[in-house]
Amino acid sequence: MRKKQNKKRLFSFGGLENKENDLRFHHLSHIQWTLVNLSGRTLLKGRVSTQEVFHLSNSDLVPGKYEGGLKLWEGSLDLVKTLQSEIQDGQLLLTGKRVLELGCGHGLPGIFTGLEGAAVIHFQDFNAEVLRCLTIPNVNANLLKKSQPLATDVSGWNTDAEFRFFAGDWSEVYQILPYVHTNKKDHNCSPGLGQSVGYDVILMAETVYSISALPHLYELIKKCLNRLNGVVYMAAKKHYFGVGGGSRRFLSVVDKDGVMEASLVSEVADGSSNVREKPSTYL
User: Fold this and answer.
1) Do 203 and 244 meet the contact criterion of CB atoms below 8 Å apart?
2) What confidence score (pLDDT) does residue 64 get?
3) Contacts by 140-143 with C-beta closer than 8 Å and gap 24+?
4) Which keywords, in A-to-Z order, does the entry hold (predicted)?
5) Confidence of residue 278 (pLDDT cuts 50, 70, 90)
6) Which helix (DSSP H) or strand (DSSP E) does residue 223 occupy?
7) pTM of this prediction?
């Protein structure tokens, strides 16, 4: 008797062909729009109902079904502010770079890089519904020339950047991402091999809450990061109580592997939540 296998849930939106169809999203009764001011940069974000999209009420996440992408987490805003600071201090140049935002949800950090001149911005989330119902409308709302949040025609985007959207689990989504290292022997990021392949900047906010997912996340980063001068910017809480993950636990995975180096960019202790950290990781 053959063992029944689970079907893979891998989706890609917004390629070079059939753009208008790829960028359609679920019809919702309404999307509420709010302005977010981040140190002088104003971004527009949508808000949709978890009940309407996933038929869930009052739930931040349901493992394996919904991973919290419809909520705007604090780390996402922290990450945008960090990118702003790094640019102002001359530590980061986004012009012409390839950017990948993992666990994107609202996608505000990725959107910010598009406004700062990145050439390629790819968004990944576990749920295709999050991409259709929230990420894509947010991208349109912030980058369309005529401020049409619900438009799906990418020809009107106020940028020449390439935007694409990918849904899937971290253990599998590399199969549909275009800029990955395909040589299995070189997943340890050996210098001199495939250095022009990969993303120059990888962004992730509040993605390290699950201990069981950390190895898959780290392996995905190694497959996707440009090995010449790639950098990962992460915003996360030190500890996620009740689930066991956190920035310190993830950095211990990085340190144990010994391939990448990490440094703390800044720390946020505002008294309103657990201490949040913003490390950067590089080869």
Assistant:
1) no
2) 78
3) 141/33, 141/44, 141/45, 141/46, 142/43, 142/44, 142/111, 142/114, 142/115, 143/111, 143/114, 143/115
4) Cytoplasm, Methyltransferase, Nucleus, S-adenosyl-L-methionine, Transferase
5) low
6) helix 214-224
7) 0.85
